[in-house]
Amino acid sequence: MSTIKSFEELIIWQESRKFTSNIYKLTKNFPKEELYGLTSQIRRASISIMSNVAEGFDRKTTKEFIHFLIIARASASEVQNDLYISLDLNYIDKESFKTTYDHAQKIAKLINGMINYLKSQTESYTKTSKINEQIQQYI
Q1: What is the pLDDT of residues 45-76, one digit of tens each?
Q2: On the chain, which terminus has fewer CB atoms closer than 10 Å, C or N?
């Protein structure tokens, strides 16, 4: 069995990367007065998801990785909250809201799956190529 050598191989990070790109596209047309407010906030929260997955992956213990995954999951919730604000202010339509909200939900479920997988392993888990498949069973 091969070993995952980098965070880029994790499906959670790959989905988070797509999500962040979509958030930037979604917020591109937000009002200019929101550039340092809601636009910045929702973008930073989406970046936080993928950044914390990457940072946690390179930590040395399972406990540390789980800690960073919990932060990533909280950032996904923050984006969902900010999507409600964007919808209420008519910055996005209902379809964009639902699509983006559902993507954040999918990422949160993947993160939960990874957390559950890691909790089921010993303190020093093996970063195998099967991680992406194995976390699916915990969703």
Answers
A1: 999 999 999 999 999 888 999 999 999 999 99
A2: N
